[in-house]
Design brief:
With 538 residues, the chain is α+β, with helices and mostly antiparallel strands. The protein has a domain of 137 residues: Nucleic acid-binding proteins (OB fold (Dihydrolipoamide Acetyltransferase, E2P), Beta Barrel). Strands 6, 10, 11, 14, 17, 18, 19, 20 and 21 form a 9-stranded mixed beta sheet that branches. The chain has a 5-stranded mixed β-barrel with strand order 1-2-3-5-4. Strands 7-9-8 form a 3-stranded antiparallel beta sheet, with no helix packed on it. Helix 7 crosses helix 8, helix 8 packs across helix 18 and helix 16 runs antiparallel to helix 17. It is elongated and about 90 Å long.
Length: 538
């Protein structure tokens, strides 16, 4: 049935007002007006009208009478007999239109009587200023473009329910200009990241989203099945191993802005589907990657903030360079002191001493910045490196506010990174933190194929012990390394979390247009934070 024949039954649950709007759509058709026409040619966006004529006086506009063809959604309608006003919005801006029966004709004015708030209309006329001084377009033609059968929320109240805002993002964008600005800022940020790398000779590529082995990070994957090949596949948790294969092949400066998928918890900082930038550079080590990552993040911040301070949870964040650099163990010791705990580097360096300290009960009754309870069982049975990493998450992570590089990670949680030559227990790895969140993760890439294979075998043992986030074996990646990966530095940047900081958005759902939601009848949106999660944004 044609979309210009509004005779269908309304869906169950739509409000009573929708039936009234449907009748108006049928009345429009009876007048020979298509409720859903094909196109309308406009000369200006509404913001362009303000930019071009916003400073002109009433007298100047009367003399000039600049023509305009505009379109927008009716946000407000004020009928006054044979002359009416309406406020249109096209997302970028708003503008008043002035409609008189004597200008548009009796037939078109009858059409305006059938216009509801939320309908999309086109107006042809001239730019003018009312006697009260408001910039407007005086209509000579009115074109109906789309009938809204569902009434929009009141503009000044919007969608009061947070879940509805995320679920009905189209309404959220329609009503709340700040939401639109957030996503425009995110787009500008991503464009700047891409421009930064392109200008430095990096090649943008695309790697598989469906992979036979879920590799490149320590996370639980989503599993799917390819019917024709009758094989199990995984939605990628990271593109890392494919990008390093390309460096082996000679693409020595390579990056991808990618969607990743991790079958883990949902919280204000975690969405199962998220966006990352990963880039790899031949002949770079960890220090080189820190340097370029700092430049990259600072450039993105400057692009979005235009030298204004970032404000997150009502607290400023400084992206001024240089960013601080702190070892993981020093960060733990500092975080412990802030909480009145005695935990020095000597204990952190000694496996037996640290195990005894964490088992002493000194942390009982405390919670970390994520609200998770700290107790002896949380640290029992962990290797020394994993215990250090867990204590960093619990005692130090939440205290980091301005961008800070945490360096010198335990090798047990860094299966793809090189070890420091002078300390085989420590990886040449960093993570960038700000506002208590991990923003980036990078390291000197392990390029010894035999050592990498042994690391994978060690991870398989961890998997057999019950760690379902441990890395799987990837023999083809080992084969690629066998052909010779040059010294390489790589980094992954969490796009969503960086956007949170630069737009002042408290939840990751505020910067993802369509975050994952339960079915509408599936109950409440319970937030769950994955235990021991260490990878950017999963």
């Amino acid at each position: 049935m044609s979309t210009d024949t509004p005779t269908e039954t309304l869906p169950e649950g739509w409000p009573e007002e929708s039936a009234q709007r449907l009748e108006k759509a049928r009345a429009l058709q009876a007048l020979g007006v298509r409720p859903y026409p094909t196109r309308f040619e406009r000369s200006h966006r509404l913001g362009e009208i303000h930019a071009a004529h916003g400073e002109k006086t009433l007298e100047a506009l009367e003399a000039e009478q600049p023509p305009a063809r505009i379109a927008g959604r009716v946000m407000l309608k004020r009928p006054h007999g044979k002359a009416s006003f309406a406020t249109l919005s096209d997302g970028e801006g708003e503008l008043q239109v002035y409609i008189r029966q004597q200008d548009v004709g009796e037939a078109a004015y009858k059409v305006f009587d059938l216009v509801d708030r939320g309908d999309y209309v086109g107006v042809v006329g001239r730019v003018m200023r009312t006697r009260k001084g408001e910039l407007s377009v005086q209509a000579s033609e009115l074109h109906f473009l789309s009938k809204a059968l569902l009434p929009p929320p009141e503009k000044w109240h919007g969608l009061s329910d947070v879940e509805s805002r995320y679920r009905q993002r189209y309404v959220d964008l329609m009503i709340a200009p700040d939401v639109r600005r957030t996503f425009v800022a995110r787009s500008a940020m991503v464009a700047e990241l891409r421009r930064f790398l392109d200008a430095r000779g990096y090649v943008e590529v695309e790697t598989p989203m469906m992979q036979p082995i879920a590799g490149g990070a320590m996370a639980r994957p989503f599993v799917t099945h390819h019917n024709t090949l009758d094989m199990e596949l995984f939605l990628r948790i990271a593109p890392e191993l494919y990008l390093k294969r390309l460096v082996v092949g000679g693409l020595e400066k390579v990056y991808e802005i990618n969607r990743n998928f991790r079958n883990e918890g949902i919280s204000s900082m975690h969405n199962p589907e998220f966006t990352m930038l990963e880039f790899y550079t031949a002949c770079f080590d960890c220090d080189d990657v820190i340097r370029i990552t700092e430049e990259l993040i600072a450039a993105a911040a400057d692009k979005v903030l235009a030298s204004a301070p970032a404000l997150y949870k009502e607290r400023p964040i400084s992206f001024a360079r240089p960013f601080a650099r702190v070892t993981m163990k020093d960060a733990i010791a500092s975080g412990a002191r802030l909480q009145g705990l005695a935990l020095d580097r000597a204990v952190l360096d000694a496996p037996d001493a640290l195990e005894a300290w964490s088992a002493s009960g000194v942390l009982e009754g405390r919670r970390n910045h994520k609200g998770q309870a700290l107790n002896k069982a949380r640290y029992a049975g962990l290797s020394h490196g994993k215990r250090v990493a867990q204590l960093f998450e619990d005692l130090a992570e939440g205290a980091i506010w301005d961008p800070t590089f945490i360096i010198d990670f335990p090798v047990e949680i860094s299966p793809l990174a090189k070890t420091r030559p002078q300390d085989p227990s420590t990886a040449e790895r960093f993570e960038l933190y700000a506002a208590g969140m991990e923003i980036a993760n990078g390291f000197s890439e392990l390029n010894d194929p035999l050592e990498q294979r042994q690391r994978f075998l060690d991870q398989l043992q961890e998997r057999e012990k019950g760690d379902d986030e441990a890395h799987q074996m990837d023999e083809d990646y080992i084969r690629a390394l066998g052909y010779g990966l040059p010294p390489t530095g790589g980094c992954g940047v969490g796009i969503d979390r960086l956007a949170m900081l630069l737009t002042g958005s408290p939840s990751i759902r505020d910067v993802i247009l369509f975050p994952l939601m339960r079915p509408e009848r599936g109950g409440s949106e319970t937030e769950k934070t994955p235990q021991g999660h260490r990878d950017t944004e999963g």
